[in-house]
Design a protein that fits this description.
With 196 residues, the chain is an alpha/beta fold. Helix content is 39%, strand content 21%.
């Protein structure tokens, strides 16, 4: 059975282009995969940034953790287990100030755990979340997808690859301020072209 993890990063609830596209992508995947299950993670609801307390919690053996450390580790493990369980990760990625939203960066930092999502070998890093597919619905007001000022899509592709997820496809509704209707129509056509 196919398991889909939907990750939304926009702070908008109404009128969000990335949410609209992730809706359509998930609907398309569900229609093509009867019985598929979907887990939704809305990053705008809050993701704690990592800090020294987080680091101490994660790397303290479970039986030695304080109650505070246990709660921190449990949340980090929840993010990790959602990624592990997913066959397909659908990510709504709005570009904020040329990069990924801060809460998406916090989520990625929560996931970047040596021995869990990646490891180091004599020949370099190896991702541990292999065999998964990611579909990213990117939206932006003025930043062109893949342009020299797009610091979001390349970063996300790189970090997913670092985790072992190399099958990454983008649907882009970029530079929306210039031709919103045409741009959205093109992006929705790209959704329909996705191999489900």
């Amino acid at each position: 059975m196919t398991h889909i993890l939907r990750v939304d990063a926009t702070i908008k609830t109404d009128g969000s282009v990335s949410r609209r596209l992730t809706d359509r992508i998930v609907n398309r995947l569900e229609a093509a995969n009867p019985g598929a299950t979907v887990t939704t993670r809305d990053l705008a609801e809050g993701v704690a940034p990592i800090d020294a307390t987080w680091l101490g919690a994660i790397y303290t053996p479970a039986e030695q953790r304080s109650p505070e450390q246990a709660a921190i580790a449990a949340q980090a493990d929840e993010y990790l287990n959602e990624m592990r369980a997913a066959d397909i990760i659908v990510i709504g990625l709005p570009i904020y100030n040329f990069g990924v939203p801060s809460h998406m960066k916090a989520w990625i930092d929560q996931l970047a755990r040596k021995g869990e999502t990646f490891t180091y070998t004599e020949t370099g890093p190896v991702g541990l979340l292999t065999g998964k597919r990611a579909i990213v619905a990117l939206s932006s007001d003025g930043t062109g997808f893949g342009s020299e000022i797009d610091f979001a899509s390349g970063y996300l592709r790189h970090i997913l690859g670092f985790f072992g997820i190399t099958d990454v496809e983008f649907v882009a509704a970029d530079r929306m301020v210039f031709a919103p209707e045409d741009t959205l129509s093109r992006a929705e056509a790209e959704v329909m072209a996705i191999a489900a």
